[in-house]
Design brief:
alpha+beta; 2 strands; 62% helix; 15% strand; flat; binds zinc ion
């Protein structure tokens, strides 16, 4: 009884964790898009962009680690008669 409660708690903590990481992931991606939408990419922005990309990779790793993935498969259209099968998680939306 007690051990299952502990397990639940651990699962709950992981979900909280992944929610936080995902929030951060979204903020970083939004920031990255904002910078990319600037027509003039100054050297300062370039440096910030590089840093953000590093952070995104790091946060992505954390999401992958903590999410109890629920994998789904889908097809994306490449061409009129070419499709690519993709695998993604419906919780964290990362692709694999
Ligand atoms: Zn996931």
């Amino acid at each position: 009884m007690e051990s299952s409660q502990e397990e639940n708690e651990e699962k709950y903590n992981k979900e909280i964790n992944v929610t936080n990481w995902l929030e951060l992931y979204n903020v970083l991606n939004q920031k990255k898009n904002e910078i990319n939408n600037n027509i003039i990419l100054s050297s300062q922005n370039y440096t910030i962009c590089k840093k953000i990309n590093e952070l995104i990779k790091l946060v992505e790793e954390k999401v992958k680690e903590n999410c109890v993935h629920k994998l789904e498969y889908d097809y994306i259209e490449l061409d009129i008669d070419r499709y690519e099968k993709i695998c993604y998680c419906s919780k964290c939306m990362l692709t694999f």
